[in-house]
Amino acid sequence: MERPVWRRGVAMLVFLLGLSAFAAQASMREVEPGSAPALKAGEGLVLMAVDTPVPVYSVRMNRDGKIFGSGAMRQLKAGRSFRLYAVPAGAYGWRELQMIHGYSYKLADDEDFRFKVEAGRITYPGDLLFRPTSVWRAQFAMANRALAAIDWLREEHAAIYAAYPFEFTGRYPDPFPAFYKAVQATGTQDTTADLGEPPAPSALPLPVATLFKRDRILEASINPTGTLLALHVHEGKDDWGVDLVDLKAGKVSRLAKSALAFDRMEWASDDLLLLTIDKPRGLQMVTVVRVDRDDAGNRRYTQIKLPRDGVIVDPLPADPAHILFASYSNQGEPMVHRLPIGSQQSVDAFRFIYRDRVNQGLTDDVGWFTDGFGRLRLVMARKDDGYVLLRKEEGEYRQVLALNEDMDFDPVALSHDAAVVYGFTEKDRGQRDLVEYDLAKKAVTRTLFTRPGQDVRRVLFDARRVPIGVQYYESGRIVSHYFQSDDVHMEGLLQKAFPGRLVQVLDRNRDGRHVVLSVDGPDHPPQLFHLDAAGGQVSLIDDFAPSLAELRFAPAEVLQVKHADGTKIDAFLTLPAGPGKRPLVVMPHGGPIGVADSLHFDRDVQFIASLGYAVLQVNFRGSEGYGKAFREGGYRGHGTVIEDDIEAALQHALARYPLDPARMCMVGASYGGYSSLVAAVRWPDRFRCAVSISGVSDRVLFFTASDSARRAKTREHMEKTIGNPHTDLARMQETSPLYQYARIRTPVMLIHGLEDERVDYEHSRRLARMLRLGGHPAVGLVFEKEGHGFDSQENEEKSWTAVAGFLQKHLGATDAPARSAAAP
């Protein structure tokens, strides 16, 4: 939840601080470490915790939203801070955070920050997370990290922890504190480190640093006439750039450099390239690069920097001297302006005046659609807890569509004449189709593409915003389906030119005669090609990852698996060359709903295969791309139906391929990590090891320690797809590895980032503690500055090196295939 800073007068500040101090003395008594005061009648204890990356002057809490009855934590250092207070029972809430005197963030109007204190109990409302996004704005959220809070409480107030029940208060229950205390009551001691050191690997056939080196090419964009190609390249840490490729002369030159990655490249005309870098709050830093020639015919580049952050709404190709640009006023209101970009002088002279904005008559607008002439015709705006589309009619914006679950429509683009919106829907259909929504009739009037059991992934447009085709996945391979015969013929030629490969169109010029392609495969790292359709030639531009170009990788096969209930499931088996039966690593994907594995080149898979181990991936029920029924078949299937599908694919593979059933491990990230842990519970003697990377261990905790649960709509979706802790608590505990820890005898490795907002580190903290108490301690790694995935290449390399050592210890060595042969 983002909040703006607000400033108060000095006198008022002193007055409120005085009242706060008085109220704290009157009704909130801080409990000093080591002391155990007797509670008065009607009193309880509250454990306040704040997590901040910067020092904070104070954080204030109120009783019943009143001035009196408040208390404050003061002079907080960066990191996590705890305080314990004795307070009268009642309703409380986090109210205000001050970074410095006079500059505060108010939290009083948000239900997420309210809680109740009961008499005779220790109440823990969760950690207050404070994350500044700019000088004036910050994000706030609550996260349940009860075990970390208990550890602090046991260290500083052991007698109090022993004397009173500890309870988390939030939107959903958390049975873990009571569960943990009951285990401790059995006399089990927990005085050593939770995670052990992972084993070091032996010599690796394929160096981790080589395989996981970031792609050099990240994006490609071709100019309207098809003469110049811009490439977003990564040369190393804090070294990003844009290369310009002259497709006729074959020459490459450096156009721009940056210490930050570019988010997007877009040609406004043949000689104007728009570069954007992501900033907080969804804004971007925009630079315009003009491509000119000097008197000698050499190219020169002029950079024009926009004076404020914003978003490019439309590059206005019909008017290269301007772009449609959205930014915020000083009061935080969105403004869309027609901004001149012909020169730095014209940009600097422009005044972003609120009354001169193009989006007159709008409030709460967050997205803008233009017609083919660059005129603002359709707007997406917030309304209640959802969004609506507003169409400009006779000078006024009127609602034409509510974007909610009942409508089930995902807008993609506005037509050239602004008469229809192209988008995806699966309402009353068996899969996600491409449809046309008529704005005048306010209804879906035409289906542009449908194929039973195939979800459309992407729409391909021509320069006039007319859909010319779609892309979808079929058994792991991307399929490009075109509507016109010329394009169908071109696609056929590409499939002949790249047999067995996955070919994707990344960009095409205005007339479609020049096309930029990405070509890869399970054993073939991606390469960038230029197709000259008129000349019938395909030319290699470069490898996305040049360091992998001379290496040979393991191929993959598609397995068509039929579950006992008749459901058809796709699985992919990567089988490295070698004598005898190969050890197997089962690798479930994340999600689990709306995510899928494919036959694109996968570094994680190829690294494991380089060790000589086969890898099995399964598109279980819930996976994306197979239609609505298949996706919804995974709803509430965590630990049950989904793992049954993995089991069916595993048995299918073991029966048909040279795999060693006595040497198998599970490795996964996010949901895949959860699935690996579930396998250790369900089949304790089948797998030799399990690796969970940023994985869920406690299904109930996911509702109180994840950014997914911070909005009403996403909570509603989670309850539908995962379960409702209020009504399904017992079933969710039964399928949570945390509460089944005593059944886990399989060696476990846990890898997690402390800044993971999707699956909080609390999941791994809890499981590691319980496994150690159960006599089967886990090994693992914890990274301070990582979230739900790896931002640091160094940390990614450390993780996979540790995984290699763990697998080698439990699966044994193999005759790993040679890696130095040139790729075909």
Please summarize what this structure is.
The protein has 824 residues and is of the alpha+beta class.
Model description:
With 824 residues, this protein is an alpha+beta fold. The chain has 15 helices and 48 strands. Strands 1, 3, 4, 7, 11, 12, 13 and 14 form an 8-stranded mixed β-sheet that branches. The longest helix has 19 residues, at 793-811. The radius of gyration is 29 Å and the shape is globular. Residues 6-26 and 820-824 have low confidence and may be disordered.
Number of helix segments?
15
Rg over CA atoms, rounded to whole Å, is: 29 Å
Percent range for helical residues?
10-25%
Label the structural class. alpha+beta
Descriptive terms for the model:
alpha+beta; disordered C terminus; eight-stranded mixed beta sheet; 824 residues
Topology:
Elements: E1 2-4, E2 6-7, H1 10-27, E3 29-30, E4 43-52, E5 56-63, E6 71-76, E7 79-88, E8 90-100, E9 103-106, E10 114-117, E11 122-124, E12 127-132, E13 137-143, H2 146-156, H3 158-163, E14 166-168, H4 176-184, H5 208-211, E15 217-222, E16 228-236, E17 239-246, E18 251-258, E19 264-269, E20 272-278, E21 284-293, E22 299-305, E23 311-314, E24 322-328, E25 334-340, H6 344-349, E26 365-370, E27 376-383, E28 386-393, E29 396-403, E30 410-414, E31 420-425, E32 433-438, E33 443-449, E34 458-461, E35 467-474, E36 477-482, H7 485-497, E37 502-508, E38 514-521, E39 524-532, E40 537-543, E41 556-562, E42 568-574, E43 582-586, H8 603-610, E44 614-619, H9 628-632, H10 641-656, E45 659-669, H11 671-682, E46 689-693, H12 712-721, H13 729-734, E47 748-753, H14 762-773, E48 779-783, H15 793-811
Parallel strand pairs: 4-11, 4-12, 11-14, 43-44, 43-45, 45-46, 46-47, 47-48
Antiparallel strand pairs: 1-13, 2-9, 3-7, 4-7, 5-6, 5-8, 8-9, 8-10, 12-13, 15-16, 16-17, 17-18, 19-20, 20-21, 21-22, 23-24, 24-25, 26-27, 27-28, 28-29, 30-31, 31-32, 32-33, 34-35, 35-36, 37-38, 38-39, 39-40, 41-42, 42-44
